[in-house]
Amino acid sequence: MQHALGAGAGQEGRRQRGGPLRAELWKALRAGFAGEQNVFDGVAKTRDELEQAVTAGIRAVVGDSFRELERMNEVATTLGRRADVALRIDVRVPTDTHPEMRTAHGGKSGVDLVDAAKLFGQTCSLGPVRVRGLHPHIGSQITSVEPYGRAVEKALDLVEQLEAECGAPVEFLDIGGGYPVPYVDAADAGDPADYFCATTTPHDYAEVICGTVNGRRPDLRLFSEPGRFVVSDAAVLVGRVESEKTKRLLDASGHSVGEEHWLLIDCAYDALLDHTFTEWYFRAVVASRADEPGDASFRLGGPLCDSGDVYIGDLGSPYRLHRRPGLAVPLLPEATSVGDVVSFRDVGAESLDTMTQYNGRPRDGACAPRTVAWCACCARRRTRTSSRTTSGPPRRSEPGRARPTERAAAPVPRVTPPRRGARARTCSACSSCRVSSSSGSGRSCARR
Fold first, then answer.
1. For residue 9, what are the contacts with CB-CB under 8 A and spacing of at least 6?
2. Per-residue pLDDT for 159 more than 90?
3. Rounded to 5°, angle at Cα 302 from 300 and 307
4. Which of these is catalytic: 305, 378, 427, 433?
5. Where are the domains of the chain?
6. Are strands 341-344 and 331-332 parallel, antiparallel or unpaired?
7. Is the pLDDT of residue 96 over 90?
8. 389: left (phi over 0), alpha (psi -120 to 50) or beta
9. Is the pLDDT at 152 greater than 90, yes or no?
10. CATH superfamily of 235-364
11. Residue 305 appears among annotated catalytic residues
12. Which numeric CATH code is attached to 9-230?
């Protein structure tokens, strides 16, 4: 979609140790983005990744340190090619967002603002390396436009200083992004400063950022990275309640002071890592009881043998408890029980790419709705003894009827993107997917 709209792509460096180079840059080039449409970021880029970036002739590699720029120079010299870079600068702008999302007020990313001029001069002295831009990324899920305004002002001050001292022009400014997603509806937010509640839109950020740049340096090209805002609402995580129980709450002396009602579901942090790893909040709804009010408190736990495999409830994050004390569990329909389907919303940015096979569990599959049909886009990876399947939207057991015994699914044909030059044709199973037919095998999707 981005390619069709003429947008570019930003990448982080990730490479499987000992395996082929299959990171985000490779994916972007494979999807059809031209080299000039790519900016490659990351704090620990490997030599192989830098070689790939230079060979592809991308718009810029974001230089995170002088040591990395020296490596970039070595790679470009060996390949006999020019290497374009953008310098990652920590403009030291504090932001009111999740602690894990702050990238420009200390931390591992970029070089300090006071060292930027020295880094710029050192880089300009390197042979095939050319500085084309600055990258003052300040973080993600920032619900106020004010930090972006201050960051742009600081970045423009630096641009003028660098051009005056070094005589080399700066062509573009990459302001970053990761514009906020409304994980919490405004009506449900306990505090306007709650960073899970977003009332701003990309237009609000564009008005401040573009207005500042156009007022001072209209000749600069401006790059933005909307990030999670583009993909978060593209997916939901669906699980089923497999068990339930009630446990007592005890005080320090061991006396019962209340009860906790638990729902144990079949999806865990092996499917949604950020829920546990960064204590990120995702709204949970009982999809099989969507027309019933949420009037009862429950705690949600996953199936892993790990006490941390517990879903953060409505305001269950320690970063949010101080704003609405006492509401640490989600409100779900009182009748929610075994067999009901629970859906976690807005997981498009934190699901497929972070799934694991922890505890030997098969990696979950993904389904995409196409009118009344369901097509399995990514078949569940199964062990020999696994019988878990993803054959369409989950169904709740009818009252009085036992759930059918699960059977091992038939092998699912693997669908790969068409190779360049390959002719795509309509899938023979659902008449809507497009699959490669270069081999003449007539493969289809995994629709069941």
1. 2, 24, 28, 31, 33, 37, 38, 39
2. yes
3. 95
4. 305
5. 9-230, 235-364, 365-381+421-448
6. unpaired
7. no
8. beta
9. yes
10. Lyase, Ornithine Decarboxylase; Chain A, domain 1 (2.40.37.10)
11. yes
12. 3.20.20.10
The count of residues in the chain is 448
pLDDT band at 240 (very low <50, low <70, confident <90, very high): very high
